[in-house]
Specification:
The chain has about 800 residues and is of the alpha+beta class.
Length: about 800
């Protein structure tokens, strides 16, 4: 029986090559899209799952109140780890304080690299279940010990044994390699953790923290925990909520800090908080692309249904004969399902080749390192199930429709496909173009929102601005000499130090006070420590007052504030006013226009710039506009190396760093655009097939019309008009649906574009043009055919 079904399927395949090609191509592309999206979704939901104790690992976080608004943050005061051990030790198996994962210079002999690493307590090795290739996790117990990743070991030592070798961190701290661990998975929050050094060693550089009158005030560290086996995360999270508020002083208690546990299972997909509540995060994109994948596959299945039922007249006689000789309807249904499974099987094989061919491009756009798991049995089981489900969806309507024909009527030739019979096919075409138009409108809107944010005034000039991270104080100690050497070489127009880059505010503090301040307001602001020429270098715009200047030695006790902070103060002319901070007085000497340093989609955060005489982490350069950037870098590097030979010269362009703020949205936009193009292509394949069938079905009608004097244009319009009507109906559905959902999506952004009428008009005209282009070939071909050939047998 199965052999017979296969033979019939092969005969139909060979007799209808064009329709078979359209069916298989459409199905294979739809399945390839669904496969890639499936791999992407699996990569997203399996984030961090490679850690052995994934379900019991959490990060300690806190929520604080600022002027009635709740803010959630990862950063914590450093005593919190010991306090958790003291009060709730039985609820945790491990508690580890940690620094932030930052760039550090790691050197061994003449070999120097800048890599990411953290300082952590020894229990971090157990929390992260490090797979040790050499040494042991206990190597972190040594204050001067360091655990390095396999990649770091190969970079520094090649094939030599790294164990026991001495290396330096930031050209300062000498440590010994006490263990090598397997590189952590890329799809994890620790994918770029290249070394772990001792927390005790880290604290030796933080003596200032111990000297503070209130060590609970500075939120600069992170804490990770692994729960004890007998505990419940939600209950423990509730127990520890007041651990900080009991320890802070009265001023900080006004912020009402609430400590809680954020489970590792939610770090990646549920990372966004608003007003103290978790509002999701990347899980939105998981659902979005899951739906898109299903719809693209559905479009391909619709093509199969349409083309199969459109040729019902040619299959009607076959059905009649089979029923006349005793075939049951269930056997016919099985036959048609078998044919669809045959097509789907071929399409699935082709989809694997398509997916493998484009997965490199897909990874680049999606920022992933995925591969098709050819050797995984689970993948093939999922592939078989996926194919069976697709075959069932694609073959269901044709199977039940074709098998319903009555034997007597079909053999008498009484079966004629009229207008009503085509309604289901037309409805499916409407569904196809509705989905395609929604994807087009969505893609346009995403890119418009990105461009809208990019066009915001940023308050400084990015052109020719570069920065370099300084892990040592060598450049600071020779700052004027370095600056003079670069100016003499005519390389730079300005140079300055800062504690944060122009694209990020690294520190937020509070406790600011001034005359006339409302005592109920908690004054917090971003704080950026800068050298004197910072404003000149980055090109900020003075709105009131003046910039920092050599002519005013007192500027070390001065502030330059941005417009947002000036408005927050509620003082008409803040220049000249005094601000109290950390028991010291600072005078406001200038106000600068708001600089866009944080999210381009949110209001500029109030920020204070404080002139510092200490070494800061970043050097900012304004390259001479008359000099080629590559030539300038080539001249800057040797000057830096002459004063700081221990550190590799690495730099970043500020405009590129600013562009990274749009990374997620641009990735989503590119993926949506790719899927929209494929959806349109699949829909066009179906239209082409339907147009071919209609032209074939109406061959004699076209011949009669030509004999009676119809022009080629009239015949083209006749055959095209039916498809135009279907697209218009699609637009009537797609426009309100897309407006509703996209308007809701835009509401998450404070600064957002508008859904202009031309977006919908462009999508509609584009869909109409694509439709006419697709069907015109078959329509014009039929209109140009010689009527003698179609009417000679009449």
């Amino acid at each position: 029986m199965i052999r017979n079904y296969l033979k019939v399927a092969l005969r139909n395949f060979s007799r209808n090559k064009v329709f078979s090609f359209i069916n298989i191509t459409g199905l294979s592309i739809g399945m390839a899209v669904a496969l890639l999206i499936g791999l992407w979704i699996w990569d997203e939901i399996s984030y961090n799952k490679d850690f052995e104790n994934y379900s019991r690992i959490a990060q300690v976080m806190q929520t604080q109140s600022f002027n009635g608004e709740l803010g959630t943050q990862h950063s914590l005061p450093f005593p919190i780890g010991d306090q958790l051990k003291k009060e709730f030790g039985s609820d945790f198996k491990y508690i580890s304080m940690s620094s932030w994962n930052n760039d550090h210079i790691i050197s061994s002999g003449e070999k120097k690299v800048i890599i990411d690493g953290s300082y952590m307590e020894p229990s971090a090795a157990d929390i992260l279940s490090l797979h040790m290739l050499n040494g042991s996790r206990a190597g972190l117990n040594d204050m001067h010990g360091i655990l390095i990743s396999d990649q770091t070991a190969k970079t520094l030592f090649g094939n030599a044994d790294p164990m026991g070798k001495l290396i330096k961190i930031d050209n300062d701290q000498q440590v010994k390699v006490t263990g090598i661990y397997k590189d952590l998975p890329y799809n994890s929050d620790f994918g770029n953790l290249r070394f772990i050094a001792s927390w005790k060693l880290y604290l030796t550089n933080l003596q200032w923290a111990f000297k503070e009158s209130d060590p609970w005030r500075s939120n600069m560290f992170q804490a990770y925990v692994q729960l004890a086996d007998h505990t419940d995360l939600q209950k423990v999270s509730h127990k520890i909520r007041d651990v900080k508020i009991k320890m802070v002083k009265a001023d900080d208690a006004l912020h009402k800090p609430v400590v809680f546990l954020h489970p590792m299972s939610k770090w990646h997909l549920y990372s966004e908080f608003k007003n103290g509540l978790n509002i999701g995060g990347r899980i939105t994109y998981v659902w979005l692309f899951g739906i898109i994948g299903c719809f693209v596959l559905l479009l391909a299945c619709i093509n199969f249904m349409n083309l199969s039922t459109a040729r019902s007249e040619k299959r009607a006689r076959e059905v009649g004969i089979r029923k006349a000789i005793g075939s049951l309807r269930s056997q016919l249904i099985t036959q048609f399902f078998a044919e669809s499974m045959f097509f789907v099987f071929i399409a699935f094989v082709l989809s694997l080749f398509f997916a493998q061919a484009v997965i490199g491009f897909f990874n680049e756009v999606a920022d992933k390192k995925m591969s098709i798991p050819w050797s995984q049995p689970l993948f093939w089981i999922a592939g078989i199930v996926f194919s069976l489900v697709t075959g069932a969806i694609a073959g269901s309507y044709p199977a039940f429709y074709l098998s319903s024909f009555e034997a007597v009527k079909t053999l008498k030739g009484a079966i004629r496909v009229g207008r009503l019979a085509s309604i289901p096919r037309k409805a499916l075409v409407v569904v196809q173009f509705t989905v395609s138009v929604i994807l087009i409108i969505g893609t346009i809107t995403v890119f418009r929102q990105i461009q809208f944010a990019k066009n915001r005034a940023i308050g400084y000039s990015r052109n020719g601005l570069i920065m370099s991270y300084m892990a040592t104080e060598d450049i600071h100690n020779h700052f004027e000499a370095v600056e003079q050497d670069l100016i003499k070489a005519d390389v730079i127009a300005g140079m300055a130090e800062s504690s944060s880059t122009p694209t990020f505010v690294d520190e937020v503090d509070d406790g600011f006070d001034w005359k006339g301040k409302d005592p109920t307001i908690q004054a917090s602001a971003g704080v950026v420590y800068v050298s004197r020429d910072f404003g000149k270098t980055i090109g900020w715009q003075i709105k009131e007052g003046r910039d920092f200047s050599k002519s005013f030695p007192s500027d070390s006790a001065a502030f330059v504030i941005n417009e947002s902070f000036a408005k927050f103060m509620g003082v008409n002319h803040p220049v000249g006013e005094t601000i109290r901070w950390n028991n010291k007085s600072y005078q406001i000497v200038g106000i600068v226009k708001d600089m866009l340093m944080e999210s381009p989609y949110q209001p500029v955060f109030r920020t204070i710039f404080h002139m510092s005489l200490n070494a800061e982490h970043f050097i900012n350069f304004r390259v001479n506009p008359s000099m080629n950037m590559h030539e300038a870098i080539a001249k800057i590097e040797p000057v830096f190396k002459s004063y700081n030979p221990a550190q590799p010269f690495e730099y970043k362009f500020i405009d590129e760093e600013f562009a990274k703020k749009f990374g997620d949205e641009e990735r989503i936009g590119k993926l949506a655009a790719s899927f929209a193009i494929l959806a349109i292509f699949i829909s066009c394949l179906g239209l082409f097939g339907m147009a071919s069938f209609m032209a074939e079905q109406r061959t004699r009608e076209i011949g009669v019309r030509k004999v009676l004097g119809a022009s080629v244009f009239n015949l083209w319009r006749l055959l095209s008009w039916e498809f135009v009507i279907l697209v218009l109906i699609s637009l009537l559905i797609a426009v309100p649906v897309s407006w509703y959902y996209l308007n809701g999506w835009l509401q998450q952004y404070t600064f957002r574009t508008e859904l202009s009428w031309w977006i919908f008009a462009s999508a509609g005209l584009g869909a109409m043009a694509i439709t006419l282009f697709t069907v015109s070939y078959q329509a014009i071909k039929a209109a140009l055919a010689n009527p003698v050939n179609s009417l000679r047998s009449e």
